[in-house]
Specification:
Length: 239
Amino acid sequence: MRLACDDVTRVFATPAGEVAALRGVSLAVEPGELLVVRGPSGAGKTTLLNILAGIDLPTSGSVTMGQGEDRTVISALGDDARAALRAQRIGYVFQAFGLIPVLSAQENVEIPLRLAGMSPTQRRERARQALEQVGLADHVRQRPGELSGGQQQRVGIARALAGRPDVLIADEPTGQLDSETAARVMDLIHDLVASASVAAVVATHDPEAAERADRVLTLRAGTAQPGTAQPGGEAVRRE
Ligand SMILES: Nc1ncnc2c1ncn2[C@@H]1O[C@H](COP(=O)(O)OP(=O)(O)OP(=O)(O)O)[C@@H](O)[C@H]1O
């Protein structure tokens, strides 16, 4: 399902005055497409991802999922509706993996499925499939501490995709990995996004990670840089 934002501005009030973390950012990501958001520290990447995922709200502008009759304006929903939409339709991959140390890989992947109310048999099967997709079929019983960083992030990716979301959001998913592992994890994200037809937005500092993108959006001081479109077309599209 298509994910888009239109003319999004986010202003934070701080004791030192107002900070405009995003200024008039527009983008659209199609199903099966990987958009990488890059830019220096403080450019607004995390702020943009939080707004796209409905964790935060724009000060002005809108975020929409889907098109036509299926169109939902995420930024117009209340807190509960946004939380429900996140649980059902958005998968999130964290920089620090976000796994629960005392649970096995399988149990970690099952968490969102349990929250979504899936039956134990179904979620066991679904989690197993997701772990197989990320190449961890032989590691389902291991706990995060018994897995390498790259394997832990694969569990994080399996968990994000196990619920078959429409949208995948990842904030610096390779930030804690060495460059070779990071490249493999980005290849995996790219391949899964294409095969699952998920609209994906990945924020990263890593220029190599950006090579896996279908399109790149560069942010500087909260502004999308013109002419940063990469293979596949325009990074910034207006509806
Ligand atoms: N809750 C907040 N309150 C006040 N200012 C904030 C808040 N969140 C972010 N900012 C400010 O907004 C700007 C953008 O921050 P953001 O975290 O989105 O950048 P980033 O590109 O993700 O940086 P990094 O690569 O270091 O994670 C920064 O100037 C930051 O200080």
